[in-house]
Structures are given as C-alpha cells and as structure tokens.
Amino acid sequence: MVLLRQAVGHTLRNARTNQSRTLRDVAREARVSLGYLSEVERGQKEASSELLNAICEALGLTLSSVMTGVTHELASRESAKLSVVDAA
C-alpha cells in the first residue's frame, strides 16, 4: 500500500539532505520539535497543512514544489507496485 504520509516524508527528507541540512537545523527554523520532524520524514506522522508549510518554508521551498515531488514519488511507487503485480 502506498501512503501519502510516506511520500511526503521521503520528499521532505530528500529536499533536506540535498541541501546538506540537519534535522535539528530545519526543525529549529520550522519551529517544530526534532522528534516530530523526524517522524514526519519517516512517514510515521502526517503533518497538518500549517506544519507542512512551515517545514517547506524552512527548506526554502514552496508547498506546491513539494507537492509536485510527492506526486512524482507516489507515481513512482505505484508504478513499481503495478510492475510487481503484473510480473506475478
């Protein structure tokens, strides 16, 4: 099963690591706890739209660009899942 929160987390983690930023740095700037941001990135928590926007701003990204990344992540995961099902 493909979960939206996992795709959001993966997209945010990729953005953060591509910027060579730490969880601590982004959490401080977004004004969220380090643990919470970590859980969001691991797809264990679903961030509210307000918190997601704060994280995006801390990363210097627009919410729409992150959602575009999420769309690509979801499409990739769904395609991979369909390929496995078709092969069976």
| Main sheet overview | none
Principal-axes shape call: elongated
Question: What structural class is derived from the secondary structure elements?
Answer: mainly alpha
Q: Strand tally, please?
A: 0
Instruction: Kindly report how far apart the N and C termini lie.
Output: 17 Å
Q: Which regions are unreliable across 5 or more consecutive residues at pLDDT < 50?
A: none
> CATH superfamily, called what?
lambda repressor-like DNA-binding domains
CATH architecture: Orthogonal Bundle
Please report the first level of CATH classification, the CATH class.
Mainly Alpha
- Rg over alpha carbons: 14 Å
> What's the helical proportion of residues?
over 70%
Strand content: under 5%
Pfam family, one: HTH_31
GO molecular function, one term: DNA binding
Protein name: Transcriptional regulator
Domain HTH cro/C1-type: 12-66
Please describe what this structure looks like.
This is Transcriptional regulator. Residues 12-66 form the HTH cro/C1-type domain. One of its GO terms (molecular function) is DNA binding. This protein has a single domain (4-87), classed as Orthogonal Bundle (434 Repressor (Amino-terminal Domain)). It is an all-alpha fold and 88 residues long. The radius of gyration is 14 Å and the shape is elongated. It is 75% helix and 0% strand. The longest helix is centred in the last third of the chain and has 25 residues, at 63-87. It has helices spanning 4-18, 23-30, 34-41, 49-58, 63-87.
